[in-house]
Amino acid sequence: MVVIATSQPPNFSSATFNKGGAMAELYTMIGKEVEVIANGMVYKGVLIEVSESEVHLKGQLQWITLPVSSVSEIKPAEQR
């Protein structure tokens, strides 16, 4: 596992900040397939909830809960 430490704020998709707010963009992704990059790992699943402290995904086999502090990016999943 590769862990990348950075002093920059999380990049919740570059398009997010151009539209004037990360949270507004994130809420449009709730209920949709996303990729979350946290601690150098990519997690895929349906975005269920984003709170001040945690990101919740419904994975293919289990629920995934990640601390917001470890998340570096949330973006729509790439279509196959």
Question: How do you describe this structure in short?
Answer:
With 80 residues, this protein is of the alpha+beta class. It is 16% helix and 40% strand. It has 2 helices and 5 strands.
Question: What topology does this entry show?
Answer:
Elements lengths: L13 H5 L3 H8 L3 E6 L2 E10 L3 E5 L4 E5 L3 E6 L4
Antiparallel strand pairs: 1-2, 1-5, 2-3, 3-4
Can you characterise this structure?
By secondary structure, the chain is α+β, with helices and mostly antiparallel strands. The protein is built from two helices and five strands; from the N terminus they run ααβββββ. It has helices at residues 14-18, 22-29, and strands at residues 33-38, 41-50, 54-58, 63-67, 71-76. Strands 4-3-2-1-5 form a five-stranded antiparallel beta sheet. A hairpin with a 4-residue loop joins strand 3 (54-58) and strand 4. It is globular.
Provide keyphrases for this structure:
80 residues; 16% helix; 2 helices; 5-stranded antiparallel beta sheet; disordered N terminus; alpha+beta
Rg calculated over all Cα atoms: 12 Å
Question: Helices and strands, in N-to-C order?
Answer: HHEEEEE
Strand percent estimate: 35-45%
Q: How is the biggest beta sheet arranged?
A: 5 strands, antiparallel
Number of helices: 2
Class by alpha and beta content: alpha+beta
Which percent range fits the helix content? Answer: 10-25%
Strand order of the largest sheet: 4-3-2-1-5
- Tell me, rounded to a whole number, the average pLDDT: 79
Shape: globular
What's the total count of β strands? 5
Oligomer class? single chain
Poorly predicted sequence stretches spanning 5 or more consecutive residues = 1-9, 13-20
Distance between the termini: 25 Å
